[in-house]
Design brief:
The complex is a heterodimer of chains A (about 220) and B (about 210).
Chain A lengths: L8 H5 L9 E3 L6 E3 L8 E3 L6 E4 L6 H19 L3 E5 L2 E5 L3 H7 L4 H30 L7 H10 L6 H14 L5 E4 L1 H19 L2 H12 L2
Helix pairs in contact in A: 2-4, 2-7, 3-4, 4-5
Chain B lengths: L17 E2 L6 E2 L4 E2 L6 E2 L6 H21 L3 E5 L2 E5 L1 H10 L3 H30 L6 H14 L5 H12 L1 E2 L3 E5 L1 H19 L14
Antiparallel strand pairs in B: 1-2, 3-4, 5-6, 5-8, 7-8
Classes of the chains: A alpha+beta (about 220), B alpha+beta (about 210).
Chain lengths: ~220, ~210
């Protein structure tokens, strides 16, 4: 019995005759627990280590679709109009959300700029567009090609999507250059603030476990 | 080994099942593909400890040039100043922007160093297979997984400054090599934290008495 894995499922679970699908394992400490019944916005934590076991997800795909779509639209608006500009002695320099990132990627030290483009543009867009690509057809009971791989990719992008950090960076940058001239906040900046709100909201109502369980539930309907 | 089933209950691995890291579904067949989401299923992340050591050492080595080399060059009216992360923080402090100085210091110095220390602690203590503060160690891992991304803050600040401060001879900012080393260090540290399988902390627990 020294090696984990030698105990069979039968011997571990026959006492309560629990099937494997009624159990979940804590992602942090691997302890088995009975799958909790959760309402939306409820959270189950591991009794042993306090790890996040599950988020309640309800039975509707619509909240996730709505917030993903709203976020993508705000993202588009954030790219269409001036983000911030710096006015100094008759000279005005204006940046868009994307040009603010591309400038460093085109400089003599491109690596940090490429990383920033990955975390502020590519990862968030792949996540939001991936959710829509998978969930909208599933909602209408059709299966888009390679949807499992796309949903895995969208979920993978979550920790690498750093919109909220970028927002704080803009504030720090503006403080740093406040002595160089006057700063004008553009329409896109406010759209970006709303984008941070909707994408954080999206992360708070779902995660990868909840999303897969929700999709499974929906497909059985 | 009657004490094997320890006080917290049975782990999935002890029961011979593996939780899918992608969708959470339990599978009796380790090292296969998940039937629900198609991700690879494994009992523990493969080569977790070796991979974490390699990534941690790389990240620490990258952090040295990240701190010592300048992250950007500021030219104002023909005069060029190269600033390091710490230099920029001190400057903000001297200009009385205390809140911003503390924010940058936390994101660029405190968080990365704390992350190195915590991952090192996790790697050294997981080898002893002991119960020592196991739950606290999991909490530490959860904290670094959550706050580690915020270290990118100063890189994004440089990106915005480089784009915005392009006013010819009056004022120009260009990035410098320290920024590349810092960005690489943050990414590699994030990979190190994610490659460490926290479940290893609880494995073999209770075997030693």
């Amino acid at each position: 019995m020294g090696d984990p894995g030698t105990m069979t499922i039968g011997s571990a679970m026959s006492a309560s005759s629990t099937s494997i699908d009624q159990l979940i394992a804590c992602p942090d400490c691997d302890r088995l627990t009975k799958k909790p019944e959760l309402l939306p916005h409820q959270i189950a934590r591991c009794r042993y280590c306090g790890g996040l076991l599950r988020r309640g997800h309800g039975d509707s795909l619509q909240p996730v679709i709505a917030l993903s779509l709203a976020s993508l639209i705000l993202f588009a608006i954030a790219n269409l109009f001036p983000f911030v500009s710096l006015r100094s002695g008759g000279v005005e320099q204006e940046i868009r959300l994307s040009s603010g990132l591309f400038a460093m990627a085109e400089s003599g030290v491109p690596l940090p700029g490429l990383v920033a483009i990955g975390f502020i543009l590519i990862a968030p867009i792949l996540r939001l567009a991936g959710y829509l690509y998978v969930l909208v057809p599933l909602w209408r009971h059709t299966e888009p090609p390679a949807w499992r791989a796309v949903l895995r990719l969208a979920n993978f992008m979550l920790p690498w999507s750093m919109l909220e950090i970028y927002l704080l960076s803009v504030v720090v940058a503006l403080v740093k250059i406040s002595e160089l001239g006057s700063i004008v906040i553009g329409v896109s900046f406010w759209s970006f603030v709303l984008l941070v709100v909707t994408s954080t909201w999206l992360s708070s109502i779902t995660d990868r476990f909840a999303l897969w369980e929700l999709v499974e539930l929906w497909r059985q309907k | 080994m009657a004490a094997k089933v320890n006080r917290g209950g049975t782990t999935a691995a002890q029961a011979g099942v593996a939780g899918c890291h992608q969708c959470g579904k339990l599978t009796a067949d380790g090292n296969s593909r998940c039937r629900r989401c198609g991700a690879r299923v494994f009992f523990r992340k493969p080569h977790s400890i070796q991979r974490t050591w390699a990534l941690l050492i790389t990240a620490i080595l990258l952090y040295i040039p990240a701190m010592t080399l300048p992250i950007m060059d500021t030219s104002i009216l023909g005069e060029t100043i190269a600033s390091t992360i710490v230099g920029g923080t001190i400057l903000l402090w001297q200009e009385s922007s205390y809140a911003v100085a503390i924010t940058v210091f936390l994101a660029s110095v405190f968080v990365p160093v704390a992350k190195f220390a915590i991952i090192l602690l996790l790697l050294l203590t997981v080898r002893s297979r002991g119960e020592w503060r196991a739950r606290d160690r999991v909490v530490l891992h959860r904290i670094i997984d959550f706050i580690g991304r915020w270290s990118m803050l100063d890189i994004f600040v440089v990106a915005i400054l480089v784009a915005l401060v392009q006013m010819g001879v009056f004022a120009t900012i260009v990035p410098n090599a320290g920024a590349a080393a810092f960005a690489a260090s943050v990414v590699v540290t994030m990979l190190a934290a994610r490659s460490f399988d926290v479940r290893l902390i609880f494995d073999h627990m209770g075997e030693r008495q």
